[in-house]
């Protein structure tokens, strides 16, 4: 399975910080009902067995809504439960060796912050790039910010789709207009909201307008 630009419009990255007693699958389904077009399961704390169990559950949900599903960083889990692919950061693993492990048919997303990193990831088999943080974010304490100019330069340098991540919400998504991105990746803009479905709907609509230059 490969992803196209349309599937990257509203990319949801999970985070259990805002579960408040709800199941992660419930929150993901609410995001999918609202129009989320791509889901990345990001888990830093679960043991392998729990992670695997959760991944299988979320994969079923994504299949129901015909949305691509990738695992953050963990290539072994992605392969074990046959996820649609994996997303890796610069420090996690070389994109080339990840592509070798995944094979040609899985989706490979790579985080990049510079034109050099972006071009290297593309050469090594990335299907799309996640670039950020484009705004200040509380989700990743160590995330350096990427300027609008750099974001635009990355989009112009590569032929694969680029999405922006980091501190994006309804209030600032229009500021990304004209950068060349095909979508946004969000965490708290969906999962920290009381009505996740409604948040997804509103964000998708605004992101579509931003991408289309309306």
Automatic annotation (TrEMBL):
UniProt cofactor note: Binds 1 Mg(2+) ion per subunit.
Coiled coil is among the record's keywords: no
Metabolic or biological pathway: Cofactor biosynthesis; thiamine diphosphate biosynthesis; thiamine phosphate from 4-amino-2-methyl-5-diphosphomethylpyrimidine and 4-methyl-5-(2-phosphoethyl)-thiazole: step 1/1
EC number: 2.5.1.3
GO molecular function: magnesium ion binding; thiamine-phosphate diphosphorylase activity
Pfam families registered for this protein in UniProt: TMP-TENI (PF02581)
Keyword Phosphoprotein: no
CDD domains assigned: TMP_TenI (cd00564)
Keywords: Magnesium, Metal-binding, Thiamine biosynthesis, Transferase
Thiamine phosphate synthase/TenI domain segment(s): 10-190
GO biological process: thiamine biosynthetic process; thiamine diphosphate biosynthetic process
UniProt: 4-amino-2-methyl-5-(diphosphooxymethyl)pyrimidine binding residues: 40-44, 72, 111, 140
Group of enzyme by EC: transferase
HAMAP family for the chain: TMP_synthase
Full protein name: Thiamine-phosphate synthase
